[in-house]
Every structure is written in C-alpha cells, then in structure tokens.
Design brief:
single chain; alpha+beta; 5-stranded mixed sheet; about 40% strand; elongated
Amino acid sequence: HIWSASVQVRQKVNHKRTFLFLEQLILATGAADKAVNIKEVDEGIDFYFKNKSHANRLVDFIQSKILSKFITSKQLISQDFKSNIVYYKYSTSLEIAQICWDDLILLPRPL
C-alpha cells in the first residue's frame, strides 16, 4: 500500500490538446512533484499520492486552470478497534470539459 490517494483526470474527446496544455502547466509549476506514481490510461492520466492533502492540492490546481468537475470517494482498507485507527484509500475522479483552450464556441443570441 504505497499510495493512499489517487486523482483520475479524464476527458472524453478525440484529441489531446487539453492534456498537452495541462501537462505543460503541471511540469512548469511542479504541481505533481509529490506524486508517487503517474500512469497514462486511454482517456486520461492517473496520479497517485501518499497523502490526501497532496491529491487535493493537485485537484485545486487543475480546477483553477481548466473547467472541470470532480467526485471524491473513499474505501476502507483496515481498521484497528483497540487503538481506534482507520486507514482509507481516497479516489478523486476529475472530468475535464470537452471544450479546449483554443476552441471557438458559438452561442445563440438569447444567451
């Protein structure tokens, strides 16, 4: 059990422009320096952290730069009744909006 918190960043589009932009931002600012492991999957990237606070810091950073929404969940790993210690694994699923940084969006006049 090396990691205790994970952040799953997903975007369901055919191109990877937003992920390339996000990757450059993360590398330039060092937002994922505390990550234990980074894994690339089909529709996104998974970041693994030792602490929940480091994962929350990455989620806050991504939300400040890119339009996204997130869902957080936790899973019980072990529990010691004698000393009242509980261990959880936290997962945060972050879904990036389907629009990209340089996309042109046309809105109807009533909006």
